[in-house]
Amino acid sequence: MMKYTRFEKARIIGARALQISMGAPVLIDVPRGEIDPVKIAEAEFEKGVIPITVKRMM
What pLDDT sits at residue 7? Predict the structure, then answer.
């Protein structure tokens, strides 16, 4: 897995949380009773299943 900066991590989790809150399907088994899209997005990030890539310009 690619090493992300804290800014990239925040952007990825925020974008994914917005997708989840708008009704996108969740890509992991969510613990019972968990409804916070940010926590769900963080769990997806930790498992490495978020379908978002970072393109770095140098």
Answer: 95
